[in-house]
Structures are given as structure tokens and as C-alpha cells.
Design a protein that fits this description.
Blueprint lengths: L12 H6 L14 H12 L11 E4 L2 H9 L3 E5 L14 E2 L8 H6 L4 E5 L8 H7 L4 E4 L4 H15 L2 H21 L7 E8 L2 E4 L5 H8 L3 E2 L9 H7 L3 E7 L2 H12 L8 H4 L3 E3 L2 H4 L7 H13 L4
Parallel strand pairs: 1-2, 1-4, 2-3, 4-5, 6-8, 6-9, 9-10
Antiparallel strand pairs: 6-7
Helix pairs in contact: 6-7, 7-13
Length: 309
């Protein structure tokens, strides 16, 4: 699947006022040529057109920050879940969680580019206004290794670091292909991947890189109802494998998983009875693994078949 590179275009009028755009409560004048030109240039422009390794970039996800650093760029601002990755400069501005980002604080960093990843439901509305204010916004979604490779090609072209594409994509692809080539067939084996954060238990759904990775190893995602997942939902689906990934505070997520296992229907799960419930390492599986994708494939192969780790 191809990565989605989307420049967000919808005007958020209230925030436009705070960023020096339209007056509060007053929509943009469609007859104003400057407003029209801004939208048209956003529609047709390439956010990476004038970007290079020295550009000031703000990354609004851990994945976005990691990929830009792996491409040889630098970041001047990140959200707090990116603090754990290596290579951040000491002077980087931490903007809080994604939902807490102050657009004024962001623009004070004078970014040449803002990179964001995630669904439209969780991305902040002010990204639209940044585009209209002349700040290029690159919205990306990486749901497979191939999508990661495609995006890294574009990023390393912008930074002029072909060597980093070789080390962070080409070498990783060799490991991925090696695992897939030698892995034993698992056709027909079903799975559910649970992402647990705080008190929330949800199944990894469409667009989650876990599904494409496990699919490459022959497994099929088993559908469960959208929203919070209970043991009864898992018992109805009866997957052969259950993979569990903690997010955020791992200790809290572990407590939530313990409560799930305490539900009466958990005992009905064949995966639980036969030892096929696997808690995956949070450090590798909480976020898209980027240049560690080969490790992710190898880890799954080891779990499934005891080989090619």
C-alpha cells in the first residue's frame, strides 16, 4: 500500500485569527485573490519542494520525528511521545501531547515544515490554518513496510542523504525479504492484535502496520467489533493468536490487560488455553518500527515458528 501524502486544506477560521489570519468569527473571503492563491498553491504544491537537511521541522508524532531524523534532517519541535527516540537535539522544544499542542507556540518555532501522522479524527484542526499561513504541512500515514520505504525515499531525496536510504531502508528490506522467504506458511491462521493504553482495549484495525506485517507472514486478521474490546468479543472471534501491545504507561496497560484476563469469557479462548497469547515488546511494537522493521518481522517469525529471529 502506498503512503498517503496529504496537504490539509480546510480553513479553521477561529484559529486563523489567532495566527494572524482572518478576523475572529469571520470566514475567509472567497473573492480575495490572496486567499484563493493560498489554497491553490497548497493543492498543487509539494511540501518538500524547498526542504533540505537544515530546514526547521516540527514533528507531531513519534513516527514523524523518527523518520525525519533517520533521513538526516533535524527537528526543532516534537510532541512528547517522541522524547524517547535517539538523536533529538538538546534544544528541541517539546510541545506536549498532540491534543495539547498550542498553535502559537508551534509557529513561534518558525518551522519550514510540519510533519504529522495519524487519522483525521486525532490530528489538530490548526494544521489547516498553518497551510493557509504559508507553513507547508506534510500529513503521512505509514501502514506497511512498503509505505515506509516510499516515504523515506522522498525524505532522503529532500535531505540529499542517499546513504541513509541505503542503511535505513535497503538494508532493512533485505532482512524483511529474508524472513518472508524462509518463514513457514501460516495460511489460514487467524489473529487479533490488541492495543492497550490506560484503561482502553482496542483491536488494531485498518491502517495499522501490524496487520500488513502479519499478513506478509500468512496470518489473517480476525474481525472484532469496533470500540472497546471485551473477552466475550474475543471468544466469539476465537482467533488462533492474540497479540497484545501496550501503549503509553506500560504498567497501567498491564493492569488493564490483567482485568481483561479476569473476565469469565477469557477462559473460553483457545488461544489462552494453548499458550498463544503474546505480549509484544512495547519498545518495538508500540510505534511503527521504521528502520527496525526487520526486527519486527523476525520477532513474529520466532514467535510463530521458533526460527529466523
Amino acid at each position: 500500500m502506498r503512503s498517503q501524502l496529504i496537504v490539509r486544506l480546510t480553513l479553521a477560521a477561529a484559529l486563523a485569527a489567532s495566527l494572524g489570519g482572518c478576523a475572529a468569527g469571520q470566514p475567509a473571503d472567497a473573492s480575495d485573490p490572496s486567499a484563493t492563491d493560498a489554497v491553490e498553491s497548497s493543492k498543487t504544491g509539494d511540501p518538500l519542494q524547498d526542504i533540505n537537511a537544515s530546514s526547521r521541522v516540527v514533528a507531531l508524532s513519534q513516527e514523524a520525528a523518527n523518520m525525519w531524523l533517520l533521513a538526516g534532517g533535524k527537528v526543532v519541535g516534537v510532541v512528547e511521545d517522541a522524547e524517547s527516540i535517539g538523536g533529538l537535539p538538546e534544544e528541541v522544544e517539546v510541545l506536549g501531547s498532540l491534543s495539547e499542542v498550542d498553535p502559537l507556540q508551534l509557529t513561534e518555532l518558525k518551522p519550514d515544515l510540519v510533519i504529522a501522522s495519524g487519522s483525521d479524527e486525532i490530528l489538530p484542526d490548526f494544521l489547516d490554518t498553518l497551510t493557509l499561513e504559508g507553513v507547508p504541512v506534510l500529513q503521512v500515514h505509514v501502514d506497511s513496510f512498503e509505505a515506509y520505504a516510499e516515504l523515506m525515499e522522498q525524505l532522503t531525496q529532500a535531505t540529499g542523504r542517499d546513504d541513509l536510504y541505503e542503511s535505513n531502508v535497503t538494508a532493512v528490506r533485505e532482512k524483511v525479504d529474508d524472513v518472508i522467504e524462509h518463514v513457514q506458511a501460516s495460511e489460514g491462521d487467524s489473529f487479533v492484535a490488541l492495543r492497550i493504553e490506560g484503561e482502553s482495549v482496542r483491536a488494531a484495525g485498518e491502517g495499522d502496520w501490524l496487520l500488513s506485517t502479519l499478513g506478509d507472514l500468512g496470518l489473517q486478521s480476525q474481525s472484532v467489533p469496533a470500540g472497546e474490546v471485551a473477552a466475550s468479543d474475543l471468544a466469539s472471534a476465537d482467533p488462533k493468536w492474540i497479540f497484545v501491545i501496550y501503549g503509553g504507561d506500560g504498567a497501567k496497560a498491564e493492569e488493564t490487560f490483567a482485568a481483561l484476563r479476569g473476565q469469565q469469557e477469557w477462559a473460553e479462548l483457545g488461544a489462552a488455553a494453548q499458550g498463544r497469547v503474546v505480549v509484544l515488546p512495547q519498545s518495538l511494537f508500540e510505534h511503527m518500527p521504521a528502520n527496525r522493521w526487520g526486527e519486527a518481522y523476525a520477532y513474529f517469525s520466532q514467535v510463530l515458528h521458533g526460527s529466523w529471529a
